[in-house]
Design goal:
Layout: H1 12-35, H2 39-64, H3 72-84, H4 90-103, E1 113-114, H5 120-132, H6 134-148, H7 152-156, H8 162-167, H9 169-176, H10 181-202, H11 206-226, H12 246-251, H13 258-263, H14 285-292, E2 297-298
Parallel strand pairs: 1-2
Helix pairs in contact: 1-2, 1-11, 2-3, 2-4, 2-11, 3-10, 4-9, 6-10, 6-11
Length: 306
């Protein structure tokens, strides 16, 4: 096996089995949410989907770092399939995620703090869109828009404006201009085909599909900044190794060990527990998440600009 970091080989077979099982689980939840007569059964299907599709997302996350499978071709193929269940375009997700690693906790990514010159309304709107799951909707919509109109990113950047920098748009959208347009379009078509195949093959209803993805949006989006909120303003140290129940951590494939991941992004999920610093603060997910509902805070210090 290809080794990525000391003695941490990519668990390729395990990843493939998990991806297959999670995709089947997602399909089953979508079917139940669409066909069950009892409302509690439909709601239960949506809740389960919100967790199982986070397993799919965690495997997509592995693929963006090239540690889902030792073969680059297989890694990207599995990543594209996982991305179709988000749904998004794999190449776009990878570009945006690697930009996040570059910009983490710099001035371009301090969404939890009000900085000098920030527009307060925009700051709070962005913040609560994360907490309520609305943030998720921008991902599939953006993937479709950039696939159809690649030049759109250039017009949306807000380059040179405080709004573009405040929201991170300037940094993220700049990456879209350099992505292969044909690949973006092909991945968007793949995602559309997978989603259409699910709807047609399983006889999904609009309400069943929407219920599952609304639950997933809320679950996924809630974690996307809880693992960074109020953490040190440092590119590599600015994340938390959050405490959650073991079953949840397993379903998210150790995604809550986020500080360990930012310090060692090439370590596969299976081994991240080895890199959790027992001396570092480890707040619970629920405590950070609840504190986030109070809104962004004033920047406590003025760190050196990066």
């Amino acid at each position: 096996m290809t080794r990525t970091h000391e003695d941490t080989p990519i668990p390729a077979t395990l990843n493939a089995v998990l991806l297959a099982a999670a995709l089947l689980g997602c399909a089953g939840c979508l079917w139940l949410a669409s066909h069950a007569e009892a409302l509690p059964a439909r709601l239960l299907a949506a809740v389960v989907f919100s967790y199982v599709n986070n397993t799919v997302f965690s495997l997509l996350h592995e693929a963006t770092h090239g540690v889902l499978h030792p073969s680059r071709r297989v890694n990207d193929g599995m990543g594209r399939l996982a991305a179709a269940f988000f749904p998004t375009a794999y190449t776009l997700q990878r570009a945006f995620h690697l930009t996040h690693h570059r910009d983490n906790r710099t001035r371009r990514e301090r969404f939890d703090y009000l900085q000098p010159g920030d527009n307060r309304f925009l700051k709070h709107a962005q913040w609560y869109s994360i907490l309520t799951g609305l943030y998720w909707a921008f991902v599939p919509v953006g993937a479709a828009a950039f696939a159809l109109f690649p030049g759109l990113a250039k017009h949306l950047q807000g380059k040179g404006t405080r709004y573009g920098e405040q929201t991170g748009a300037e940094s993220y959208l700049a990456r879209v201009e350099h992505l292969p347009r044909a690949t973006l379009r092909a991945e968007a078509l793949l995602t559309l085909g997978v989603q259409a195949g699910l709807v047609w093959g399983l006889g999904l209803t609009a309400s069943g599909w929407a219920l599952c993805y609304a639950a997933f949006a809320l679950n996924w989006s809630s974690l996307q900044y809880a693992d960074h909120a109020w953490s040190p303003l440092d590119v590599h140290e600015g994340a938390w190794d959050l405490r959650v129940s073991a079953p949840v951590r397993w379903l998210f494939l150790n995604y809550h060990y986020h500080r360990a991941h930012h310090r060692h992004p090439r370590v596969p999920w299976l081994y991240l527990g080895r890199y959790v610093d027992p001396e570092a603060p480890r707040p619970s997910f629920s405590r950070v998440w609840l504190s986030m509902w109070r809104g962004p805070r004033p920047l406590p210090v003025t760190p050196e600009e990066r």
